[in-house]
Amino acid sequence: MAEATLPDDPAISDGGAPAPSENGAAVSDERTELQKQVARRRTFGIISHPDAGKTTLTEKMLLLGGAIHEAGTIKARKSDRHATSDWMNMEKERGISVTSSVMQFTHGGRVLNLLDTPGHKDFSEDTYRVLTAVDSALMVLDHAAGVEQQTEKLMEVCRMREIPILTFINKLDRDGLP
After folding, report:
1. What is the pLDDT of residue 9?
2. 161: number of CA atoms within 13 Å, CB side?
C-alpha cells in the first residue's frame, strides 16, 4: 500500500522537519496530529460485475461497523428500507447502483471510507474514477455467475494502478459454474 502523503503546508519544509516559526512546537504538534489522523484512515472501493452483491455487502459492513442500525433491502419495491448507498429514485426502484456512494464509519480505531460502486458497464467510468482514490479494492465475485468480463476489466484496472485487491466470493449457497 502506498504511504499517505501530507497536504502541502507552508509550515512544513521539504525535509520533513517543521519550518522555523515563532511557535515551532505548535507546528510540530499539528503535523504529528495530522500524521496520526492520516494513519487512521483507510479508503476502499467495493467493485464487481452487476448483481454480484456489492450493495448488500456494503449494507452488512455498515451494519456491523455500527454506522447503521438496520440494513436496507435491495430490489424490494414495497419496502420502506432501501440500501443506504442507493439514494437516487432509479437506484431504489431498480435495485442497481448508478453512481458511486461514499460512506464513512469507524471500526477498531480506524476511520473507514467505503465506496460502493456501480457494476454495470454503462456506469463503469464512475467506478474507474473511484479507483484513483482508494487504498485498496474489495472485489466481489458471484459464485453462481463466475468471473464475468466486467470483473476481468476491473481486475486489469486495479493491476495497472497497483491497487491491492481482496476477493470476496458471494452467493456460495447457490450452485456455481463448473
Report:
1. 41
2. 19
Give me the residue label for grid cell 471510507. Answer: 113
End-to-end CA distance of the chain: 35
Residue 137: φ, ψ to 5°: -130, 145
The residue ranking higher by pLDDT, 44 or 96, is 44
From the CB of residue 68, how many other CB atoms can be counted at a distance below 10 Å?
A: 18
pLDDT value, residue 66: 75
Q: How far is CA 10 from each of CA 14, 17, 21, 35, 167, rounded to the nearest angstrom?
A: 10, 12, 11, 16, 41
* Structural domains in the chain, sorted by start: 41-170 (3.40.50.300)
Among residues 163, 93, 84, 151, the alpha carbon closest in space to that of 124 is found at 151
Residues in the chain: 178
- What does the mean pLDDT of the chain come to? 75
Q: Kindly list the distances between the CA atom of residue 38 and the CA atoms of 3, 8, 32, 151, 173, in Å, as whole numbers in the listed order.
A: 10, 14, 10, 30, 39
Average pLDDT over residues 92-103: 65
| Whole-structure pTM value | 0.65
The 10s digit of each residue's pLDDT in 15-28 is 445 455 566 666 77
